[in-house]
Amino acid sequence: MENVIELRNVNKAFNGFELKDVSFSVKKGFVTGFIGGNGVGKSTTIKLIMNLLQPDHGEVSIFGLDYKKHEKEIKQRIGFVFDQNVFYENLTLLEMRNIIKPVYRKWDDALFHSYVERFKLPLKKKLSTFSKGMVMKASLTMALSHHAELSIMDEPTSGLDPIFRRELLDILHDLMQNGERTIFFSTHITADLDRIADYITFIHNGRHIFTKEFYTIEEDYAIVKGEVGLLDRDTEKEFVGIRKFNHGFEALTAYKQRTQNIFGDTVILEKPTLEDIMLYTQKGINRYVESHT
Amino acid sequence: MQIIISNTSKEPIYEQIYVQIKKQVLTNELQAGAALPSMRELAKDLGISVITTKRAYEELEKTGFIYSVVGKGSFVSEQNKEMILERKMKVIEEQLMAAIQNSKEIGIELPELKELLTMLYMEDV
Amino acid sequence: MLNLIRKEIVLQKKTLMIMLPLLFVFLFEGISSIWIGVIFCIPLIMQSFSIEERSSIQLLLNSLPYTRKEIVSSKYLGAFVFTFFILTTISIGNLIIYGEITQWKQLLFIFCSVALFISFAFPFSYQFKSQYIMTAFAILFVLYLIVINKFISNLNDRLREGVRIVLSYDNTLLYAGVLLTVVVLSFFSWMLSIRIYSRKVL
User: Fold this and answer.
1) In CATH, which of 3.30.470.30, 3.40.50.1000, 1.20.1250.20, 3.40.50.300 is domain A3-217?
2) Any CB–CB contact under 8 A between A68 and chain C?
3) Bridge pairing between strands A239-245 and A248-253
4) Which chain C positions have a beta carbon within 8 Å of A103's beta carbon?
5) pLDDT at residue C191, as a whole number
6) How many CB atoms lie within 10 A of CB A76?
7) Which of A26, A179, A240, B19 could form a disulfide with A5 if both were Cys (CB 3.0 to 4.6 A apart)?
8) Which chains touch A (3 or more CB pairs under 8 A)?
């Protein structure tokens, strides 16, 4: 399968933060959800993918092309949405379009107006009067109006109400119908991913933890519940992270089958949510740090 | 084609799709040659990811219930009679084995079991 | 590239609309063309800088299919477009109001002053922030006032005299030399800005 985005051993250090040896790829024709807590490197990774930052080491290639030689060509084919207002606030949406329209070879005015109508956006009001949700809709409109092959979205659902979030997912589903488009989007509202994401890329503390097909996550990972008495130095190693309570423990395993074999019927195994995985990974790393200090 | 998926079920979603399509093929609700919706269409309708429907279709293809034509889509396969028979035979064998095991546990002898089987067989008709 | 320059003009449309009548009023009042040229050009150019200083705007420009080289270059070219625009307006204004053709030396003087300003201000603004330039200007202006009031009360006259003397030189070669120096300076400033901006962390 063709990769649209490829990061190979990317390292980037700045502002006291570091991305370490990050490698992953994003498959063409699919939606990849990009998850991780705040300040773990999501925005930095997106900026590297957009060439807003350059890696200290390693390579980033988009559509198999290198930014050094094909910067404009690559960006022609990308639609981007950031989680902040990137427009000139003193302009109206229409004036903003006039600035962006001539930039893209494949700009589609009819498409632009169809989104403006669908999102009920005012064309002649200053962007500074837009609410956060409206700014997001305006960003989406710009990103979707030039037939971009790759959409990169940083927290596109933040600031949107649940009804519109659902509508957005429908729009994204529509976009994916021909199999030629690729979407890479970061979010911390992981419930949105259940409905659309084909792959999940998870980073934590500047490291790439995994990129998996969505369904393999529930095949590999499980929430394990049981009595505290079952835990000892050896069995604890089985888990990514553990939470102990008075009445028992809850833990996350990354090897569902093996855990099942070890504990048998003495524990209950449940399907984890992405949030569970993020939470326990965080816990696990804290535990690791504690045991070494 | 009707498919109902449950997000709270323990069964993975692709499995739910697989089982339901398979059932509809076996019961002839979906007839041989019938076109299935494309993976991307189905994903959109069900509000799930494309990779999930892709996985379900791949499993269905592997087990011979459907086949795909590049650029045209997926279709219900001609069900091979012998294959179905063979599969059914296997199921019967397994069920009988279970009955035999249970019989042995409580000491029912073969003639008695045969009698019971004959009686039940006749009754059902 | 052309789109970037067009964007500069679109963004300043409203400022230009306000400035034009004002410029005519100034001309009508008989204020010197050179003075008008400089005080209209520089704020206009710096304004175009400060509009885009918000980091999110830099995010936008760099995400669109432009290279950083183009983004910087368009600022320089845009500044020259604005300068020519002001120069043209002054010439036309003088023609309409006084029925006279503006001295080419005066226009050249304005152009060179503005270009000199840009050459220093742009790399500085890319490295730091344009508001520092504005602050620096405010301080200079205050100093200038102090100097006028406390030390050299006829500084204004002396400056005017100086400019008059410079303009009265009839040596074309001298002007060509000055122009060449300014152009070379601008060019180096341009290259320097590209260097600074390419390394900037957004």
Assistant:
1) 3.40.50.300
2) no
3) antiparallel
4) 3, 64-66
5) 94
6) 17
7) A26
8) B, C
